[in-house]
């Protein structure tokens, strides 16, 4: 498990050392044979420790498929995924995942939902032993005092924060997020983006997030993968070197605007079937 | 026939109530108990009127409210003093309860088989659907031949009529589980048994209870039909005898007790549902809750 980088201040333009590789994907292909559909075509990528990667692309270009393969939920047709040097061949404890819907169990309290992955993997006693960790996580996402509340009493944003805790509780090496805030309203979404940035920094997390929103992709990311469709492939990588921590005001700066335009442009190229940017 | 459509309700549907409020229909401003009482009195009056207007030679075919209430009073006295009607009520209650219990257990087990296994869905379900399409009452004489004139044949009849909705609703509940949540369980390396126990069955509970409520009503039907066709000493047999001697007032009084029996069982199931499903809003509670 990674430890929070307490006391290490990464503010400003301090250049970060090149971190070690957490995920390496080589020549990943996925064909859905039933429909004769090539969903992913020769995808290569590297995710370094404690970086945030956004993935954006037109609907149906294979983003969710890529994420599910990385999570070990569906098999690749060919290619290799290494997570911390070990091939991903199925679900693993060091992979954390989160969806557009919070997918909380409505009959369980927040803390019981957070502890679910421990309970499933190691039993109720192990979950009970992790209770303090879970409480600290709820505190980390700003839900102190909500541990015994049921999901129907939580707002959409609060429910997604519980889902974040549930994803973090096993101390995963990689966080896979599939449009995690796609169902939230705009204001909540922006707030959650700021929160997610803070949480990722505090946990030194390596994150991989699928999104539909360009500003969100740029705001959170160290690199934005722009995908093109049919077959799905990573068309462009846009590096985002804006200083951290980022705040919402930065979204009005010319630098931010330029990055958004670059991503937009790459997306348009992909959709028009034009060449690579 | 079954209430399979009574699934989970989203919060968006709450706005219906608000719309009614703004539309300001007079009926919405009257407390519900008042409208229920008024309509009940009106129907009672209509009943009385029709009974009064019957030609004298046909009066015996329709007992009026007064005769019925008098007979209901006598019936109640008989029951309280432990007379033969009390015995009949006890017999029918046993048939209904045991029939319901058997239907609940068998329906649940078959529902899980159908909803959770491919074999169940592809091979067992078609037979169950075909069986359900048959007029089940037609089997009553067979059950009498097999299980005799005692309570057993009625229990089987109640079970036979009541178990199908439980199967269908249990299976529908298992199918209704959210796909992303299933994927989440896969990502946690959950075993099939764990996913069933910790995710699918709890998710299916609102559907299962819908099936159980239907079964509660149907098991009364099954027991009474069994008694009509297979004798014995239950309320159904008493009703049949009363009708033969044209004691319609007594028939009505006994039907009231059958109704109470059905309502109590239904209420018991609804109560258990409310206790267990605090996280889920079932429509019936909204009706009760807006008094
Ligand atoms: N299980 C499946 N079987 C067949 N086709 C699938 C399956 N899952 C996804 N697809 C197809 O693969 C393509 C990529 O889907 P997906 O990864 O969900 O796209 P998105 O980028 O919108 O997340 C789509 O055309 C989709 O219809
Ligand atoms: Mg998707």
What does this protein structure show overall?
The complex is a heterodimer of chains A (277) and B (291). Chain A contains 9 helices and 10 strands. Chain A is an alpha/beta fold. In chain A, the strands form 2 sheets. In chain A, strands 6-7-8-3-9-10 form a 6-stranded mixed beta sheet, with helices on both faces. In chain A, strand 1 and strand 2 form a beta hairpin. Chain A is globular. Residues 1-13 and 273-277 of chain A have low confidence and may be disordered. Chain B is an all-alpha fold. Chain B folds into 2 domains: 16-53; 60-276, MetI-like fold, CATH 1.10.3720.10. In chain B, helix 4 (65-80) packs across helix 12, helix 5 (84-116) crosses helix 6 and helix 5 packs antiparallel against helix 10. Chains A and B meet through helix 3 of A and helix 9 and helix 10 of B. The complex binds adenosine-5'-diphosphate and magnesium ion (MG). Adenosine-5'-diphosphate is lined by residues 32, 34-35, 37, 39, 57, 59-65 of chain A.
């Amino acid at each position: 498990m990674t430890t929070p980088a307490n006391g290490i201040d990464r503010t400003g333009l301090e250049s970060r050392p090149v971190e070690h590789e957490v995920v390496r994907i080589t020549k990943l292909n996925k064909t859905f044979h039933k429909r004769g559909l090539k969903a992913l075509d020769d995808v290569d990528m590297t995710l370094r420790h404690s970086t945030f990667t956004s993935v954006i692309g037109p609907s149906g270009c294979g983003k969710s498929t890529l994420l599910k393969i990385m999570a070990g939920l569906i098999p690749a047709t060919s290619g290799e995924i290494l997570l911390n040097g070990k091939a991903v061949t199925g679900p693993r404890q060091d992979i954390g995942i989160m969806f557009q819907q919070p997918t909380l169990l409505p009959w369980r309290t927040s803390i019981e939902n957070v502890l679910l992955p421990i309970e499933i993997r190691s039993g109720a006693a192990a979950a009970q032993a992790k209770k303090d960790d879970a409480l600290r996580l709820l505190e980390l996402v700003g839900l102190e005092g909500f541990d015994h509340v049921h999901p129907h009493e939580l707002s959409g944003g609060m429910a997604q924060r519980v889902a974040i805790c549930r994803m973090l509780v096993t101390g995963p090496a990689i966080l896979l997020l599939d449009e995690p805030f796609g169902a939230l309203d705009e204001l909540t979404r922006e707030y959650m983006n700021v929160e997610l940035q803070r949480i990722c920094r505090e946990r030194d997390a390596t994150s991989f997030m699928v999104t539909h929103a360009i500003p969100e992709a740029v705001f959170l990311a160290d690199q934005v993968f722009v995908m093109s469709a049919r077959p799905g492939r990573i068309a462009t990588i846009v590096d985002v070197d804006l200083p951290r921590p980022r705040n919402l005001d930065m979204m009005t700066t010319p630098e931010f605007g330029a990055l958004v335009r670059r991503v937009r442009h790459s997306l348009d190229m992909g959709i028009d079937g034009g060449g690579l940017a | 026939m079954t209430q399979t459509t009574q699934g989970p309700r989203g919060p968006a549907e709450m706005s219906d109530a608000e719309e009614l409020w703004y539309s300001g229909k007079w009926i919405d401003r009257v407390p519900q108990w008042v409208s229920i009482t008024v309509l009940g009195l009106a129907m009672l009056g209509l009943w009385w009127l029709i009974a009064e207007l019957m030609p004298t030679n046909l009066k015996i075919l329709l007992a009026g409210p007064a005769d019925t209430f008098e007979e209901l009073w006598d019936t109640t006295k008989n029951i309280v003093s432990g007379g033969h009607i009390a015995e009949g009520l006890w017999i029918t209650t046993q048939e209904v309860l045991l029939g319901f219990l058997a239907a609940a257990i068998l329906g649940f087990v078959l529902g899980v088989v159908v909803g959770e296994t491919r074999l169940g869905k592809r091979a067992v379900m078609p037979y169950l659907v075909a069986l359900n399409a048959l007029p089940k009452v037609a089997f009553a004489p067979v059950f009498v031949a097999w299980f005799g004139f005692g309570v057993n044949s009625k229990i089987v009849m109640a079970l036979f009529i009541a178990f199908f909705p439980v199967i269908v609703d249990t299976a529908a509940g298992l199918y209704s589980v959210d796909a992303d949540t299933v994927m989440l369980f896969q990502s946690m390396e959950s075993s099939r048994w764990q996913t069933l126990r910790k995710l699918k069955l709890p998710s299916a509970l609102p559907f299962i209870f819908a099936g159980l409520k239907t079964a509660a009503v149907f098991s009364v039907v099954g027991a009474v039909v069994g008694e009509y066709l297979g004798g014995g000493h239950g309320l159904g047999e008493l009703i049949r005898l009363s009708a033969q001697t044209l004691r319609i007032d007594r028939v009505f009084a006994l039907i009231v007790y059958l109704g109470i029996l059905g309502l109590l069982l239904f209420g018991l199931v609804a109560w258990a549902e409310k206790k267990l499903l605090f996280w889920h809003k079932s429509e019936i509670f909204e009706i009760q809750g807006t008094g």
